[in-house]
What we know:
This protein is mainly α. The protein has 39 helices and 16 strands. The strands form 4 sheets. A 5-stranded mixed β-sheet has the order 1-5-3-4-2. Helix 36 links the parallel strand 8 (792-793) and strand 9 (842-844).
Amino acid sequence: MPRAPRKAKSRGDGDTAKEPAEASHLHLDQRPIQAQAPQHDIGKETQRLDTLVAKCKVGVAWVNLLDIGKQMMFGEYNDRMENDAETNKLIASFKGSGIVSMKDTSAIPIILEIDRIRPGLTLAKDFIEVDEVPELELIDSKKIIVASGQHRLSALRRYKKSLQDELSALNKRWTKIANHKKPTKDDIEAHQELRTDIGGLKGLLESIGQWGIIVYDKKKLLADGDQLACHLSRNNTLHEYKETEEEVLVTILRKVKRIYEQSPAKTRRSLALVALEEIRAVHDKNARLQKVLHNDSVCLLLATRLLRLGPHFRQRVEFSVTWLAKSINICMGVFVAWVNARVVILAKLGSDEPFPDYKTVSNLLDQMDAGNEEATEKVKTLRASINDSALFRDSDLSIWGDVAQALDKHAKTAFAEVAECIGEMTPSYITRLHTYQQNVVDTLQQTWLLKGRAKPGDADHLKHLDQVVARVALFLTPQPGSPYAPEPLLGGFMMDYAWRTFSRVEKGIAETCRWFEALLDSWHILHPKTHTMDDWSTVMLSNIRKDPRFNSAGNAGDAIVNIIWLFRDSLMIRLTNKIAQGNVVTKARAADKKALDKAFEELLDTEQVACNALLALVNKKRRTQDASRDLSYEPRSIAGMMVLHTTAWDWLKSGIKNASRDIEPCLRAITIERVYMLQYRPTLLKDKWIGALRRMFEIALMTQVKKKMIMQGKELVKVQEWVWWDDLALAASQADPDIVVAGIKDKSLLKQQQVQESLALESTDRDAINKLVAIVSNMACAKASTSPIALMSSDVLSHLHDLVDGLQVNSARLRLRTLNDDPVMEFNVSEDVDDLQITLPEGHIDEYTTGYVTNKDAESEPVVTQSGSHREVDTQPSPPEKDTPASAKRSSAPAASTSTRNASDTREPGKKPKPRPVPRKQRQPSPAPVLELSDSSSGEDGEAVPDRHSHSKTTTTDSAGNVTDDGSHKLQDNGVVEDSTRQCAVDVPVTDTSAPTSVSQTVDTLDAGVSLPADDTVPSASTHTGVHDTPAVATVALEGTDKANVDALSATPPSPSSLLSDFGPNDVSWFVKENAKEVETTGQEERGGDGMVPDSTADISQALVPTQPLTQPAMPPTQVPAEPIKRARAATGSSSSSSGRASKQKKKARIMQTAQDDDESA
């Protein structure tokens, strides 16, 4: 068979082989590259603006800045904050190089109407001939708009003050020398030098205020808007300053604000966003600034709302690029929505629609308080008219600029001490609200010239302002029968309070955001350089706003933010505590791309198949022309379909070219998150409080979704329904959240609000007591010998222990009474003392000291308590006892006995020993300040509910037969309990028993109101065959629907008669454990053998059990044996054996563990 001919090779030098027939028809453009002008040349644009500004120049003159400084108005077009560092630089320049005021680069530009200049005055063209520059004279005393120069004026004032102080000091010295009756030669020389210096200073002070100015024609400069004025006010061309990030941001915001105000009402928001997108596309790639500019909601709030409210808001931290870039993380979206809602209130209060005057409204309120029903109805009608006012005329917000600072000061004075009660209908808050209302009305009337007038004049402006005062007075009046009281008007104090509140429940807000977006945790791993999901709550509200299931009118996101705000101190704190404790999941989410890949490989094959099905669906949609993201009408036959419907990830974007790089990783992350949330979210939603929060979200969203026609049997029914992307449904008992919310009592709220303050006080007391112990431990007179490394003497240690006990009792008493504001509140020593986990040093008993007075029943051996221990100073270590088979036969429950008094106790035998308070059970030492909602000591059905100090203890037996207590104590064959946390031995009596040791003896408490019925399960999303097959659909039938549709949502939930329970940081009641042995033995079987939770077809009522105790385990009660077992001291760096010298073996002290300090219930 003949061979196929070979292809000819290229021979170079233009001699190439003939191209095959299948060669590409595409060709590169080989034409020479021509020079092109930059599309956005910043330099040319600056030159163009400079030329236009120069054409508006009238001339130059000079003024005395110190005389007319109050007449100058800075910040009209560049409200840059004064920088002390720049001012100090100018002062140093004045002292070192003098004042050069008559120069173009240092002259101050002002913007004037030409007709304000005195007729006949001719301004100079430049500063070449300084003597010919005239002084500026005006015909009025109105404000002078200054483009820039506030630092020069500030530096000039401070420099003049320093010169005056120096002159005053020289005058004192000069006067003192002049009063000498017999001056010496040195006095005469000093006197003459002082005269010269004083004369020089007076010369400087005489002309220090003269400063050159450049006058610009205001009419020409503002003919085409304020662009030229803003350019003139910028400092980027001045050599003294560099334009800050805040100036750049405000310049951009002013451009957006101008476009927003000049555009039609229906399209101004979209046009402003288009302008913002164009600006950030050509702007410098400053990472912080770009992060801020990519958050549309923040930029629109700053540009179209806060800038219009005046300098009080402009000077706040919200305009700081550094603060914004750091805060755009989780809570910024809800904070912006909260501020925007309060700005809307100000706009409604400032509306110019018809409204009665203040006197009429005040009389109506007085009549309503007297019980007049007609006046009550009129007031109700006026409140409704305020809510229905038209929004955002130009004058609605601008009127608040002059009074915002004073109103904010009134709010801070009235509510600073009761900030946590803002908006609550409580006596203390209502009293302060009334005082705040009176101060606000007085301030508005005084500022707007209405004080003392019986009737405002006929001027429309004064009439409008009087109506605004009437609206404010009515708005700040509590409404009878309402569960909530009015909040103070928006200001710096309220914005700071709102940000602190949202930051406090940040973890809870993050979890609610995950309910609306599945890619929040993994987006920045896959797309680290994008800004799509910079702020989680912004993504949540954006997803709600863009969801095609909602009607175009209204915004369901505002309802979500309102729920979060109303229940910020109860349900949101509950959710935050559950997430912050970190015990509801077995392992954390993936933190990098490698961990994501590993997590996907560990998934079950069925989940990977579902991921591939999602990929096929996405590819099919992308191939379809004009495909829609609305998947709510399609059968949910693939698990995770609703994630594609709700996500902020634009998977239909035409710019996505590489599916394996841009699509597959995101779909894998969706699958991982869908499987991961099954580890904790079903159990989380069983909590009746968190379930009530989610149910309120559902109701708020359902009322605004579009109606759908469905078939129930043979009937057609219109319903409104909301489907979560995770396909998790609440139990029928959680259908009515009002019943659950009604269970939040005032006592529970009070305790919950005191938790954070209590933890802070405990931390302060703990630090103070630890400092005392450290001081005493380092005292030379407290040591057992003169060696600097000697242990503390047991005589000192025993009394130090008593002192620490007393301090813990007294500090607990002070904390309790401080938190409850009751100096005589009853204090129970046996119940109200918190163990602050004070660690005492080890002590040494001197065997050569005699004469102690001892009791009959007490042995002359030192006693060690939970907080400290006694041992010899120079004992040598002995090899540890090896475990023997006999140790497996020993009992795991040693007998408890009452501890004896220390041998060093010098109390007289006849006297009764001082009773020592019994502290509460141990809590985790130095806990993080976790917010909690506390409750009474009983559960829903009368079950005992542990307080926040209680904990469970587990005793297990290892393979060698050693009995361990929570992994911290091991019973060895010699009767010694080895504590790995203390490195000391405790003598324990050995008792034989035939009772077998249980594998797990864990005491747990269930909250009867939290767990769901056994038949409430969550079906797998992969089993859905139709749109309405899933029980995760919360459905409310509309008019004409079957009554059976409503029955599922009106089931009677558990009784809310009890107070909130298990809101503490050590709460374990949400871990449902129906079979303790099964929990210990299932292991990988529950997770499908690969470390993951089972498929969603499993029963979600079987909750997870924590693998470790929530609190530090306490040591078991022990007893001193008849014959102590000796052990050697562990080798240390200061041991005598390290120097090579043999040490003398001394008698070792016996140590025992008291039962009282470990567990009072033993």
